[in-house]
Amino acid sequence: MTPLQFAEKYIGGKDKDWYIKNEEIVAEHCPFCDGGERKDKYTFALNLNSKAYNCKREANCGESGSYFKLLKYFGEDIENKFQVKLGELKSKTLIDYLKSRGITLDTARVAGVKQKSNNTLAFEMIHNYEIVGIKYRQVKLNEKDMCYKEKDGLDVFIGNINTSEDLIIVEGEMDYLSVKEAGFSNVISLPSGAGSGKKLDCVTRAYRHLEKVKDIILFLDNDEPGRQTKEELINRLDATKCWEIKTKYKDANEILMNEGKQGLIDAIQSKTRVKLKDVDFLVNAKSLDLKKLPSIKTRLIELDQITGGLILGLTSVWTGKNGSGKSTLLNQIIANSVDQEYKICIYSGELSNSLLRYWIELSMAGRNNIEFKPAEKGEIASIKVKPEKVNALRSWYGNNLIVCDSTKNREPKNLLEKFKQVYKVYGTKLFVVDNLMTLDFGGYSNDIFEKERKFMQDCADFAEKYEVHVAVITHPIKTKEKITKDCIRGSGHITNIAHQVYMVHRMNDKELLEDNTYIEVAKNRLLGIEKEVKVVYEPISRRFYGKGDDVDRKLGWDK
Questions:
Q1: Fewest Cβ atoms nearer than 10 Å: which of 58, 309, 480, 548?
Q2: Residues 156 and 107 in one domain
Q3: Which is nearest to 193 in space by CA: 110, 123, 142?
Q4: Nearest to residue 445, comparing CAs of 412, 408, 487, 472?
Q5: Does residue 488 belong to any structural domain of this protein?
Q6: Is the dihedral of CA 22, 27, 33, 39 positive or negative?
Q7: In the chain, what's the furthest Cα-to-Cα distance?
Q8: Within a domain: 342
Q9: Quick count: other Cβ atoms within 10 Å of Cβ 228?
Q10: CB 189 within 8 A of CB 171
């Protein structure tokens, strides 16, 4: 039910009983108090944007709240875009199943659990006063339950956030109901279980509410995926207000089933603050397995074999003479990063957003999806993604590429602060600075080299703290000779601080189409291997490829 439909049903006819002013429905009489004994008029308003309502007769009425509260009061269902009818939870199979998990029917009903069928529970996911997703749990006797969601739904937390109370975040819907059973009402569940990236888009959508909560108790599963998810949430939600639960059991539901309601209450009440992150004993350092380091693959086989890809937690510097293709190579890696389901944030100090999108989309499309018309008399050549492919391509990468406004983020401090905000809100893992020369270092000290050193160190600290990768493009000095690390313009600390240094070389001035380009790994702090990788440039799709690479690799949108 929309606000206009609500007004027509419970207030009366438009222009007679209510009117719209300043994007608010203003009613002649409040549907709660009817204006009181004096029949006060036009005291009730319902905002069409926020959907919040209030009656200005504060002494005698003062009703106010969210649209969800308003609809619930009048016994109406909130908007549901899914063509599915859910019923009241009354199936004996489901009630017995919940009972076997320690959960009463009253708890499930108060939590809003419904049923899709006699063996399938339904959990509605609500965002901005409408149902944007539904998660189902199909109960199978003697088999593992099967969970699935409505197609085209949004991933938001299961449950509502009360910003005035401590909030508990759990990993699954059975844990969600278990905590409710123990008497804690302010609890929400991750919609897709443990994970990162898109699985935590729910954090992005609820971020403005999560910011207002004073303390957050992270009650994730006591296994490796749960621990990794907890660390990601700590980074994004601010460690100073995060608490954790330490238990020998796997999760909240297992505690409820083995120790009962009081055992779960005791576990939650014994919460401890998350560990201080900037100090520890060396013996507690994580074991390092180079093959399992989280990284974003460049998808250039030889290059990834040498470096392991763009390893999360590290920084890289990319350089090359003008026209060598260093920015083009990063655009290709950005396209491949999206294909690996990573989100990327780009600062481009030289290109407009339109031109940047044009170049990246060519790399994403591949030459088989590009329309090429050679130059004719008086006109330049035309290269563009085929019109019939554009919508599918943009729908695929749409929310994964984030661009910082270069006109407002040229000052290094502002840019790093913006990177932090982007990570916390969107969970972005790759940050690209193109290029260092376009930043305005006036906000630091008077020494330009010191300013550059500090910026690079800040990038390295940011990458390590949030386990992301920062790639910085920079220019070399003008020279006719082959460039080296020492040729990079500016402070020597730029390459000293970076963990990886890549240099793109053209062997001569012939066309890039020939096999005359190579990528030099000039610094590889983690693995120690420094080597050159020969590549070929395909000018239509602006892709590089080397030995064993498929220049016509299809990305996710085209499969």
A1: 480
A2: yes
A3: 123
A4: 412
A5: yes
A6: positive
A7: 92
A8: yes
A9: 16
A10: yes
Please state, in angstroms and rounded to a whole number, the distance separating the CA atoms of residues 103 and 246: 22
> From edge to edge, which strands make up the β-sheet containing 543-546?
401-404, 344-348, 430-434, 469-473, 315-320, 500-506, 517-524, 532-538, 543-546
In whole angstroms, give the CA distance from residue 401 to residue 291.
Answer: 28
pLDDT value of residue 515: 56
Q: Which of 437, 508, 443, 424 is nearest to 477 (CA)?
A: 437
What DSSP line would sit under 373-393, residue for residue? E--BTTB--EEEE-HHHHHHH
Q: Which single residue is written with the structure tokens 């790399």?
A: 363
* Cα-based angle 505, 484, 498 (whole degrees, multiple of 5): 100
d(CA 543, CA 369): 13
Question: What is the dihedral sign for C-alpha 319, 478, 455, 405?
Answer: negative
* 399 prior amide bond cis, ω within 30: no
Domain boundary residue among 225, 247, 273? Answer: 273
Predicted pLDDT of residue 50: 65
Neighbours of 106 (CB within 10 A): 10
Let me know whether 8 and 48 are in one domain. yes
- The alpha carbon dihedral of 211, 213, 214, 220 has a sign of negative
Distance CA(495)–CA(301), nearest Å, equals 24
Domains: count for the chain: 3
List pLDDT tens digits, range 459-495: 999 999 999 999 999 988 888 888 888 778 777 789 9
Range of the domain at 25: 3-73
Determine the average pLDDT of the residues in 71-82: 74
Within a domain: residue 283?
no
Domain end residue (candidates: 224, 244, 273):
273
Q: Which of 201, 195, 58, 71 is nearest to 125 (CA)?
A: 201
Question: Which CATH number is 149's domain given?
Answer: 3.40.1360.10
pLDDT digits (tens, 9 = 90+) for 112-165: 899 999 999 999 998 876 788 999 999 987 788 899 999 888 899 999 898 889
Q: Are residues 360 and 414 in the same domain?
A: yes
